Please model this.
Amino acid sequence: MRPEPQDDRLLQLADALVQRPYARRGIAASSEPIRVLLVDDHALFRAGLRLLLHAIPDVQIVGDCDATTDIARQVARLGPDVVVLDLNMPGQDGLAITRVLSALERAPRVLILSMHSEEEFLLPALEAGASGFLTKEAVESELIEALRVVAAGDTYVRPRVARLLAARERERALQRRQPRSAAGDGLAALSTRERTVVELTARGFGGVEIGQQLGISNKTVETYKERIEEKLGIRHRTEYVRFALDIGLLHR
Model:
């Protein structure tokens, strides 16, 4: 099977990020204050970030706002160097906001700070124009380093995550070169109902929707998925899609 374009790009990106200087030795404090605008729908979270960053000598918080604000206008008024932006806010799409900000004449750097994993949203965020990506589980030192990296004009992803992404994508590339018989062996290990759950999951249906189609509870669907994942060694929906493609379920 030919490698999927997104997989190729993610592998190339991860390999490139691993080679960045900051990934090996960190980055020094900025010689000029980094002007930062915080955009998140949760006021308590913004307040926490303000408090955390207030003690950092080369970081200056110029403002904060939620999704109800005209963020492009705020950027034009406040002139931040970096916008720290959440992806999920009511009524607003963080990726769409990133595209708008990236198209401004005096575009700030955008650092995504999200509850979502890098695996799921890193590539879409960078393609939308973001300069970095952190999850909200990141520690203080990672956030400070990320601000300095993107303010300096570089791209930031946690070095550990970049290495994990690179290793994972190389492993997937090897798996894609394996004979299709490996997928056939996995198929043989599944019951008829488990195959149906694999197909519906790969087609994008959630547990409740699958249960409605099969006349079973969502809890029963989750039990089937636990068995499937144990037999096939898969976890994410993208892996369901790859397996379903390998065995021909999505070509019907």
In short: Residues 159-176 form the longest helix (18 residues). The beta strands are 34-39, 59-65, 82-85, 88-89, 92-93, 109-114, 132-135, 156-157. Residues 180-251 form a domain with the Arc Repressor Mutant, subunit A fold (CATH 1.10.10.10).
